[in-house]
Inverse folding.
């Protein structure tokens, strides 16, 4: 029996719980903090990617995570000029205001690891290459993501 009455919602809830579980595995069992970390890192990443690449990444995210990713987004044709890891982590820290102290580097690595495991390898590599070298160091070195032909969670139309 479906919890929500719609399979697409049940699937995205299950997938989002998996993402949060993977984040809590690295940062501790506080799911509220895991959500805030996911949101802060996704927003920092999204705002530093070229517009088209940000949209392509968003298309590969689970429906509910996609909503978090796009929440409060004001697309701009130019990307952020921030070039250092410290500046990137400051943006993440700004998204974590009011959350119990969290190492922003650990938080970013946890979310990047989840993305690397659940988004196609080719897309992850495009995202990594669009970031400054300093920020790329926060990504896991070798994480097997889904195959390029892996079926998407739900159709693009939702």
């Amino acid at each position: 029996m479906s919890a929500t009455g719609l399979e697409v919602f049940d699937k995205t809830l299950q997938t989002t719980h998996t993402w949060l579980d993977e984040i809590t595995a690295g940062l501790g069992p506080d799911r509220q903090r895991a959500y805030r970390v996911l949101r802060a890192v996704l927003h920092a990443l999204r705002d530093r990617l070229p517009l088209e690449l940000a949209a392509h990444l968003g298309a590969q995210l689970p429906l509910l995570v996609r909503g978090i990713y796009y929440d409060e987004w004001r697309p701009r044709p130019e990307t952020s000029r921030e070039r250092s890891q410290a500046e990137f982590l400051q943006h993440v820290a700004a998204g974590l205001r009011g959350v119990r102290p969290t190492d922003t580097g650990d938080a970013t690595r946890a979310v990047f690891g989840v993305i690397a495991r659940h988004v196609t390898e080719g897309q992850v590599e495009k995202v990594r290459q669009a970031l400054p070298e300093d920020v790329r160091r926060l990504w896991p070195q070798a994480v097997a993501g889904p195959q390029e032909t892996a079926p998407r969670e739900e159709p693009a139309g939702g």
Remarks:
- The chain is about 60% helix and 0% strand.
- The radius of gyration is 15 Å.
- Residues 147-152, 154-158 have pLDDT under 50 and may be disordered.
